[in-house]
Structure formats: C-alpha cells, structure tokens
Amino acid sequence: MPVITTIEDLRRLYKRRVPRMFYDYAESGSWTEQTFRDNVADFSRIRLRQRVAVDMSNRSTRTGMAGREVAMPVALAPVGLTGMQSADGEIKAARAAERFGVPYTLSTMSVCSIEDVAAHTSEPFWFQLYVMKDQDFMANLLRRAREAGCDTLVLTLDLQILGQRHKDLKNGLSTPPKLTPSTLLNLSTKWRWGLGMLGTQRRQFGNIVGHAKGVSDTRSLASWTAEQFDPQLDWSKVEKIKKDWGGKLILKGILDAEDARMAAKVGADAIIVSNHGGRQLDGAMSAIRMLPAILDAVGDKVEVHMDGGIRSGQDVLKALALGAKGTYIGRAYTYGLGALGEAGVTRALEIIHKELDTTMALCGERDVHDLERHNLILPQGFDDPTRPI
C-alpha cells in the first residue's frame, strides 16, 4: 500500500482500481473541458502571505455551514453514481462524513436510496434535488427526504439540460451501460471493484427505480430520465419548492451576480457558487474567480458557499479568505472512495483538514473566522471576471 499524503495520491490509486467508465465519469468536464481545467488552475494563481513570529497555538477550524456546526468548513458535495465508484458508496461516504463532523449531501441520482443512507447513519444528512417534470415523483421525493430526517435541501439549478461529456459517450456510460469489448476487458481487470459490486444488491438509482411511475428496472429508467429534467425550471418554481420543502434551502449552481441576487430574494438560506464541476457550460468562468463578484452583489443577504476545483486544504483556505462561508468537495472524496472505500473518504477529509490547519498557522491565523483577503496575494484583475489574468 503506498503512503497517502495528498489528494493526488488518492486520485492515482483510484484510477488503478475503478473501471475506466466510472473514473472518466468523475474526472471529466463537458465539451473541451476548459472550465473543468480552469476550476483547478485558477486556485493555483492565488498566492498566500506568510507571517512569522505570531502565536500559532490553540487553532480552530470549527465553524458553521447553513446553521450546522462543522469540524471544518467543508461539505461533501452531491455526486451522482457514487455507488458505482465503490459498492454502497453513498453509505460509506455518509458514514465517513458523519464521523468527521462535516455535512454529507446525497444526490438525487445516487445508487443507494435516501432510506438506505438514513438506515446506516445517525445524524441528518443533506439531500440534493434535481427538478423533474413528474410532479407526483417530486412531491414523493421531498416527503421521503423529510421522513428520512434530511434537514437541508440542496436544489441544483444548472442541470435543466445536460451538457455533453464526450468521455461518457465514448465509454458507453448509459443506463444500462453499453458493454463493448474494450469496456468488458477493462472491467475484468478491476477485480477488487468487481468483488465489492457482487457483494451488494444496490446497483441502480435507488431514489428512482421503484418510486417513479413506470420505472421498475434500469431499462425503463433510461427512457424516463431522458425526458424528465425540467427545462422550464424558473424562479417561481424555486419559490414553490422552497414552500413545499418547508426547511432550509441551499441553491447550487449560481455563477452570476444577478442570479445570486435573485437567490437572496427568494429566501435561500445559502447559495453555492458553482459551475457543476465544469460539467455543464464549457467556457464558463471558474467558480473561484466568480466568487468575489457574487459576494459583492449579495453582501450578507445570503450565506455564500462555493465548489469546483478544490483539491487541497490550501484551496479551502483561499476560498474562505475571499469570503466564502463554506466549501464543497466532490472529486476529492470520490478519489478516496474509489481508492480505499470508506477509509479513503476519511483519508481525504484528514488530508484537507491537516492542510487547512497547517496553512492557516503559517499565514499567521488561528481561527478560520479570521481568514480574509489580507492572507492572499491576488493576480491583477483576479476578482474582476470581465478582465483576463
């Protein structure tokens, strides 16, 4: 077993252990993947101010996200098909997050169902919602989330129409998967993954199959999902969902100042500055570059979080210093899950926490609440998305 000290170590091990179609599903963006790359690259443009001869004892990374106390301002983002990266992957990730003291967000497109995750955890988790045309299914989904104890709804706004991801098409990633000779050959080499999948009954979208009208297996699921994402989702529907849900609401997929103002207007408890990990509108700005303009637009009217490109605790610190109150990791914990299962998710969280804590100290800060722009050196024009850098 190699020594795991970085998220990149987990990614390399993940690539070796998980079938190519599922690795590529996570490690890709839409079209040319420009935005997917920029999400990571733009973090590297930000430099840190080192400070010395300051008291670095008694440090704390504890804070709150959307009213929940957290061990560090990092939540596990909703990731579809997590249960195909590792058998029962959503359950493993949720348990790791609960033990560590950070929120876990279950995707609508999860393999393990809401009920599966609730049965294997003791603390409330967050539920991410895609808006579907089937109103009965939507009402039932919200009811199930409430009954499972979910206390926060994360409503994704940027997936009304699917962006094209070339790798998924070429790998035959569909419902059910197209098993080409090359895919079957690759699957045959991933024996560790295969044994895990043979040992579970959870191999389809547990929130949908058996719950949506006419969807009883993966074949009927394919035709249902192809026509169900609601292209008519607008702010009036967001307001209705907020009313129907009745609990805390986080709006995910905000990448424009005007949309951020609208999110505050409809009463969101928090927003997530996000471009869906570069998987939707290719050519859009990175989340970290849009963060300052969105914060300027909404001030303290709504709590602002961000995701996209976070691969280290230093990235978390940079987002917090720019003004975010919380961050989300998706690929970083998926690497750990695919590499080492539940222990890998825990390892990813440990790595990010240690990097955040150590970097905070070397920047002369002892509390995450004290992180501000004075801790950063920004390239000229970085916080103006209308200017190149």
Q: How would you explain this protein's 3D organization?
A:
This protein is an alpha/beta fold and 389 residues long. It has a single domain, classed as Aldolase class I (TIM Barrel, Alpha-Beta Barrel), CATH 3.20.20. 43% of the residues lie in helices and 11% in strands. The protein contains 17 helices and twelve strands. It has helices at 7-17, 20-26, 34-44, 82-85, 89-100, 114-119, 135-147, 166-171, 181-188, 191-198, 218-226, 235-245, 257-265, 287-298, 313-322, 331-340, 342-362, and strands at residues 47-48, 63-65, 68-70, 74-76, 105-106, 126-129, 152-156, 248-254, 270-273, 303-307, 326-329, 376-377. It has an eight-stranded parallel β-sheet. The radius of gyration is 20 Å and the shape is globular. The relative contact order is 0.20.
Give a quick precis of the structure.
The protein is α/β, with parallel strands linked by helices and 389 residues long. It has helices at 7-17, 20-26, 34-44, 82-85, 89-100, 114-119, 135-147, 166-171, 181-188, 191-198, 218-226, 235-245, 257-265, 287-298, 313-322, 331-340, 342-362, and strands spanning 47-48, 63-65, 68-70, 74-76, 105-106, 126-129, 152-156, 248-254, 270-273, 303-307, 326-329, 376-377. Strand 6 (126-129), helix 7 and strand 7 (152-156) form a beta-alpha-beta unit.
